[in-house]
Amino acid sequence: MRKKNAVTFVLAGALCLWAPLAPSSAQAQEPPTVKLPQPGVPEAFTIEGKFVRAAYNNEGYVILGYQPANRSIGGEWMLLDVGMTVLGKTPNYTLTRAAISIDTPDGKTIALATVSEQRAGGTQAAQKRANMQRDSINYFPRPATQACRIGFFAELDSKAMPFDEVELSSVRGCLGRLYFNIPGGITYGQHWLNVKFQNSLIRVPFRILTKDEEKFVGKNLKDIQQQVDEAFAPKN
Question: Which of 21, 39, 148, 163 suits a disulfide with 172, CB 3.0-4.6 Å?
């Protein structure tokens, strides 16, 4: 399992990337900028790739990959690849379906779908797309060396059984997929994945990018990451 060192936690905003409409000459002279809307909770975050985001606090860590969702504009099913663990001396935590939701750009909060909704909802296309267009999210703090499954859902052609809960511990890096039914279909803009831990809430920002925004992010990812590192550097 690929590992990522834990870092100092800070009170931080969340990433919102966008492609400025300035002339190309101006873009060449000025570095890319990031907008940091406040998540309303103490946390920090990292960028692991164009479609991979992670957020964490002193209690828990959540990472997500959302390329399939970004390729499903207008579709009513959003699939997210996620990884989770607890940090430090945090006791084991039993994560349930009710602890997970997303916020959409229009201000709605959408709960995790049920297994029956997922199976009856025609999610084969989302599953197939996710199997073809996905990014590695296997980045965890150093102690999380044991693999485990977040089994809220099972692949439609799999014999695996879905479960209503998963026990998170600091030595386990748990991976799985989440399904959300989006009334009216997936739209461009800023989204948040919300995960309630025992004593805190983690909100992972992810932006469904337009084609122009995706090009901008792809070209400037290193510069953007540097800006984020500087913005969230520990204060002396």
Answer: 148
Note whether residue 14 is domain-resident.
no
What is the total count of domains within the chain? Answer: 1
pLDDT in tens, 1-56: 444 443 333 333 333 444 333 334 444 556 555 565 567 788 888 777 889 999 99
Q: Is the pTM of this model over 0.90?
A: no
The answer to whether residue 5 sits within a structural domain is no
Short-list 117, 98, 115, CA closest to 183: 117
Beta-strand (E) ranges in the chain? 44-49, 52-56, 60-65, 77-86, 93-96, 100-103, 109-111, 146-150, 165-168, 172-181, 189-196, 201-208
Assign 3-class secondary structure to 157-226: CCCCCCCCEEEECCCEEEEEEEEEECCCCCCCEEEEEEEECCCCEEEEEEEECCHHHHHHHHHHHHHHHH
pLDDT at 157: 77
Q: Return the H-helix or E-strand segment holding 131.
A: helix 124-132
